[in-house]
Amino acid sequence: MEKRILLLTTGGTIASTQTERGLAPGLGAQELLESLRDILPPCRIDTREVCSLDSTNMTWREWLLLAGAVREAYDAYDGFVITHGTDTMAYTASALSYLIQKSPKPIVLTGAQKPIHMEITDAKSNLRDAVLYALDEKSAGVQILFNGQVITGTRAKKVRSFSFDAFSSINYPPLAAVQDGRILRYIDVGESREEPVFYDSLNPRVFLLKLTPGIRTEILEAVFQTYDCIIVESFGVGGIPDSMADDLFAILSRYEPGEKVLVMTTQVTYEGSNVGVYEVGQRLRERFPLLEARDMTLEAVLAKMMWILGQNLTGFGEIEKLFYERIGQDTILA
Which of 83, 91, 104, 105 is nearest to 63 (CA)? Predict the structure, then answer.
């Protein structure tokens, strides 16, 4: 029986054309496919245009639209390919990893650093490889496929602005590589051979606070009033500078545990955080219950907290339990 793939498009560089004001998404799903007719593997590919955006304009609303589109068509297709701009692809891949869990079918995100109609482009090879990977019976779950590398959705990060090898797998090995039409698997993703679990709610009131030397604390009051979760991107393995600690503690003391959630992560890309290593971190942990991102990517932490807070949990204990529950490959450090 001929396999069926659903191609979901969202715009991005892969579908962009040159305008008077620079590149902007302009090609539809069928136009993308027409560029690949002679190099795609045999299968039936249907298309759906979910949106047409520069990925800098993607939001949690589009994440829910994509998850809903997959859910609606799930039984009719063997796999799904999503074309997406590179700038926020890792955020979308993380979000879909939480919105669509335990999928035995592959949901593969890809895109390009150069539009598909350019003479020199990575678009055609990326899209061809994504379809090839989505057709394979051993593929499952949410992944990014880019420049021949397959990265699980919660481990991807864009690390280069222009080069074709734009993404890296952070604190976890790539799952596979696609070379010359062949899939070379490094890690079996067979644990996803269950019935998929879909979610349809997110809480976008999650804020990222990046610490800088000498940061002023006046912003904290407004942040805590507006957002339900604050992710602090700290220095090194994790810690709050003395100049901020007293004000932060004073604000946190006004809230019950779980009313406002504090997540500590690090600005360092590799190896993760450990708040308890230094005195400045231990002092914070002793005075207020918090969550530690450990070796998770920032993109995964943000998406996971939006998903967790969208589940209407009661109390810090339930939030903490779900945050530390491993979903896919999102956390490995104890």
Answer: 91
Name every residue whose Cβ is closer than 8 Å to that of residue 185 and which is 6 or more positions away in sequence. 138, 175, 176
Rounded CA separation 181/132 (Å): 7
Catalytic residue from among 9, 13, 83, 331: 13
Least confident range of 29-33, 72-76, 93-97, 275-279:
275-279
Q: For residue 160, how far is the Cα from the chain centroid? A: 16
Residue 47, Cβ density class (10 Å: 0-12 exposed, 13-18 middle, ≥19 buried) = middle
The residue among 133, 146, 269 whose CA lies nearest residue 189 is: 133
Strands in the chain per DSSP E:
4-11, 16-19, 22-25, 44-53, 79-83, 100-101, 106-110, 141-146, 149-152, 156-158, 167-169, 176-179, 182-185, 197-198, 206-210, 229-234, 261-266, 291-292
**How far apart, in whole angstroms, are the C-alpha atoms of residue 315 and residue 334?**
23
Could you tell me the two tokens for 289? 């219950």
Parallel, antiparallel or unpaired: strands 156-158 and 167-169: antiparallel
Residue labelled with tokens 């496929």: 145
Which residue, 92, 189, 78, 195, is CA-closest to 141? 189
What's the rounded Cα separation, in Å, for the pair 120 and 110? 17
Per-residue pLDDT tens digits for 177-226: 999 889 999 988 764 567 899 999 999 999 999 988 888 888 899 999 99
Note if 47 is an active site residue: no
Backbone angles phi, psi at 124, to 5 degrees: -65, -45
Q: Which amino acid is at 201?
A: S
Q: For residue 229, list its beta bridge partners.
A: 206, 261
